[in-house]
């Protein structure tokens, strides 16, 4: 038996959300300079990579200048870890990583859903599990983008804050998280509908047996 329109829409949303969240997770364009400065010290940053152009410890405790794009946990960055990795950014990394991890599991569950027959005894459980997983993943993603959106372009983080803008990787994270929430809710709706349908069928069978 084929899938319902709700189920098909949920699968489509899951695939789209996975693509957007994956791109946001792996690209370094959550915050970047607006290009108006002739020689900006800060270029751009993502969850796992940062690009500098002569950036120096703003407290002037060290003379080291940083150039190019590197992993945010690069050993050379240890002297500016407290600047590069403030609490809000670590929280963003944590919640969006949790979002991505749950989404990977949700992707597997969604794939199982597309292959699973409605007659399978675990079909309803699969719907509930997929919906709950994707919804939780979306909530983690939304928490991450709220945290970063509130603090990411603040004047106390990267230099020349007035020339730093929230960028397209962040936008993809926002859109992907809300599409993911839609997918999770649709799976939960489908699970509830299927449960009601089974209850109606069992109710009719019970009446038939009682009549006999």
Task: Give the key terms.
5 strands, Butyryl-CoA Dehydrogenase, subunit A, domain 3, alpha+beta, 212 residues, 60% helix, 5-stranded antiparallel sheet, 5 helices, membrane, transmembrane helix
If you had to describe this structure to a student in words, what would you say it looks like?
Keywords: Membrane, Transmembrane, Transmembrane helix. It is a multi-pass membrane protein. It holds the Pfam family Claudin_2. One of its GO terms (biological process) is regulation of tube size, open tracheal system. InterPro entries: PMP22/EMP/MP20/Claudin (IPR004031). This protein is of the alpha+beta class. It has one domain: Butyryl-CoA Dehydrogenase, subunit A, domain 3, CATH 1.20.140.150. It contains five helices and five strands. The protein has helices at about 5-25, 80-85, 85-115, 125-150, 170-210, and strands spanning about 30-35, 40-45, 50-55, 65-70, 165. It has a five-stranded antiparallel β-sheet with strand order 4-3-2-1-5. α1 packs antiparallel against α3, α3 runs antiparallel to α4 (about 125-150) and α4 (about 125-150) runs antiparallel to α5. The chain starts with a helix and ends with a helix. The relative contact order is 0.19. The model has no long low-confidence stretch (mean pLDDT about 85).
Q: How far do the termini sit from each other?
A: 30 Å
Overall tally of domains: 1
What is the share of helical residues? 55-70%
| CATH fold-level label | Butyryl-CoA Dehydrogenase, subunit A, domain 3
Q: The biggest beta sheet, please? A: 5 strands, antiparallel
Query: Which regions are unreliable across 5 or more consecutive residues at pLDDT < 50?
Result: none
Q: What share of the residues does DSSP label as strand, in percent?
A: 5-15%
Specify the CATH class.
Mainly Alpha
Query: If you compute it from the alpha carbons, what radius of gyration comes out, rounded to the nearest whole angstrom?
Result: 23 Å
The secondary-structure element order is HEEEEHHHEH
Number of helices: 5
Average residue pLDDT:
87
CATH architect. name? Up-down Bundle
Structural class: alpha+beta
Inertia-based shape: elongated
């Amino acid at each position: 038996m084929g899938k319902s329109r709700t189920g098909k829409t949920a699968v489509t949303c899951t695939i789209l959300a996975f693509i957007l969240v994956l791109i946001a997770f792996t690209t370094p364009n959550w915050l970047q300079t607006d290009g108006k400065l002739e020689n900006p010290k800060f270029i751009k940053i993502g969850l796992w990579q940062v690009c500098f152009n002569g950036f120096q410890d703003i407290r002037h405790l060290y003379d080291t200048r940083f150039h190019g794009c590197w992993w945010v946990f690069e050993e050379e960055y240890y002297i500016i870890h407290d600047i590069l990795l403030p609490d809000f950014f670590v929280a963003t990394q944590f919640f969006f990583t949790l979002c991505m991890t749950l989404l990977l599991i949700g992707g597997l569950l969604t794939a199982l859903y597309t292959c699973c027959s409605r007659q399978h005894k675990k079909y309803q459980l699969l719907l509930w599990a997929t919906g709950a997983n994707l919804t939780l993943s979306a909530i983690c993603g939304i928490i991450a983008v709220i945290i970063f959106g509130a603090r990411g372009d603040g004047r106390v983080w990267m230099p020349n804050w007035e020339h730093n803008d929230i960028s397209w990787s962040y936008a993809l994270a926002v859109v992907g998280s809300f599409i993911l929430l839609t997918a999770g809710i649709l799976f939960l709706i489908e699970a509830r509908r299927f449960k009601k349908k089974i209850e109606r069928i069992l109710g009719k069978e019970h009446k038939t047996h009682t009549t006999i």
